[in-house]
Amino acid sequence: MAYEINLEVYTFQIRNKGDKSFFYSLDNFLENEDVIPFFADFIKYYSNISISEIQQKSLQFTSNIRMTSGDRIISGILESGDYGVESKIKDKEGKQKYLKAPDELDIKPFYFLIWVPNSTNVGIFITQRLGVFGIHGMFTTHFSGFFKEKYPELMVDFSAYVSKEIARKFIEKGGIKEVILKRFKLPSDISDKFDLNFENSKIKSIELKIIAENNNYFGINNRAKKFLNDENARLFTLPELESLGFDGNHRELIKVKLGKNTRTIDLSQTAQLRPYFDIDSDVERLPNGHPKFESIDKIARDLISDLQEEFFSRN
Question: Per residue in 129-145, pLDDT tens?
């Protein structure tokens, strides 16, 4: 499906400008202030639509907000859209239904979750992607700006969350359903092998997906385990693949299912769990194609439960 649903996971920390050696506790920073009420104020402030002229995107939190004070979790729906280019809206038969003007926004709803554990200096936020569309950039830009207005001497750092421990758990106990090989900056001699009659252009990247038949699993977990301790290991060393550019200068990813959860693991980064989680086959969709809030919210909160043990061992 073109509009696959994924969850992106990032961490955030608060520090003084110019000092990366110390981060404040998120429930007790600067005169006993807690970041949870600050997030609530941030959401309330942007309950009306806000436009970024630089990004040519909009941001607006809806009234569908769920706050769980005991768990220190806030989740909800954020609407965002882009503008700036005229486009034709057609039906599947090719008949034009509408002409979207450059100043009109194409609004889509996106799920988000914020988790701030007690007595830690690192929080987690999760945002939904819908195919190529996402809200990570808009969310972090607006929150950083909102935070700076109140605390000009401080700043918020955001980082992608990668997990080796969860990757290890999935590789050891789960079933590998799909292998993905990606090669960027394809050499000219290999690019020339593909006679696709492209005018004035060459192929610069290639992706190969190997999918198990009839929803089964590949029996290659033992081979994949090598990546847990050997960053130079490779999943496949077939000469035919090398001739296509998969010669060690490529990325190898696997989709692994454990229970009801599917995770994408980047073996090229020594078996790191990538900051996005593939939930497309697990989440329930509304008739309009967007996820049901109750369904995606449960999946995200279950993900928080998966992350907790490793998260607290790190912090």
Answer: 998 899 998 899 999 99
